[in-house]
Specification:
This protein is an alpha/beta fold and 426 residues long. It contains 16 helices and 17 strands. It folds into 2 domains: 106 residues, Roll (Urease, subunit C, domain 1), CATH 2.30.40.10; 286 residues, Metal-dependent hydrolases (TIM Barrel, Alpha-Beta Barrel), CATH 3.20.20.140.
Length: 426
Amino acid sequence: MGILIKGALAVLPDGAAHATGRHDIYVDGTDIVGIDEAPQGFVCSQTIDASNRLAIPGLINAHTHTYMSMMRNVADDLSFADWLFGTIEPIEDRLEPEDAYWASLLSQIEMIKSGTTCFNDMQMHIGQTTRAVRESGMRAVICRGLVGGEYDLDERRIREALEERDAFANCDRLTFRLGPHAPYSCGPDYLRGVAEVAKREGMGIHIHIAESQTETDNMWADHHCTPVEYVRDAGIFDVPTIAAHCIRVSESDRAILAEHGVSVVTNPASNMKLGNGFAPVPELVEAGVNVCLGTDGAASNNAQNMFREMSLLALIHKGTHDVPQCVSADETLAMATRNAARALDLPTGSIEVGKKADLVLLDLDAPSLTPLNNAVAALSYSANGSEVTDVIIDGKVVLQDRTLLTIDEERVRHEIARICTRLGLA
């Protein structure tokens, strides 16, 4: 089905930056096939009048745990250790597999309605998030969370992860990575085993690294190295790696990450809320590291809204560095789109011919975008996600005039209420 997005004020790539102008965007099948000029043979089945819309590439949430949405607002104002080990892990232990399906759908509702078209998920329950993604129409990278000490060649979780990948091989919107949880939950032998499997299977890695000062201190006390060095020495960086957080990383750590092509995902709201600090984003960029943006799960963020993360990212480092040019709006948008697409090896992240049609339209009449003046600046400093009217993912309209076409929101709310009552959260 051919879609013409007519007369949009569109944010297009302009070298390392972005340029804004009025454009017609042609979508055929799953791809963007033309900008301003229809390709030969294009047949338009649907025209979207975008004369009062801002078109942007779909935002990419590069690190989250979508199954955590039912834990929103249940573990607040706690230390990281009390949050994780005292509250969240006991709830996780009581989850039933289908709980993760409904919780992931709830996260995906929030993401779609606030302009996110793709997410990189570390999940626990095999088949549940993938089932939700297949139904919602979102794009996702699924990473089975892994923990262990000694590596066993018949390790159940890894076997399940590979079986899940094979079972959903026919869904082009789904790709898969392995997700060793963190240096403090995975022994060096286990990490080496995961790295070997990833190398053999041609898969990438998604891991938490250096999320707190306690993690860094304990790593030094136990192993006389930093978390980054520990993971590197275990061979994880020998395959494409996405490292979440990287808050406590030294200058030498940053050089290691850059040398091995590791992409770092910063999660401002979650990191601040848990009192863990800020990733040194300007220093990471200066070192040559590809930096992306994510929300983390709703248990630590309380939201899955990438516009809030963009605003925080663009503001925090100006304040901490006393430099107003630090992490510009242009850089912020890139981290939320093209940098993440590069990290996840996805043909998305920008509005260009040949890219997948993952597109978001925002209402230019929204008070928060009036007057617009500078569209790229507005995305970080003015927008909050409520401006999103339409979302196209993989060439299919999944949100139309603020109405979801793929998910029964009322049913999801009902199921989440039932789960929360059973878990004693309601």
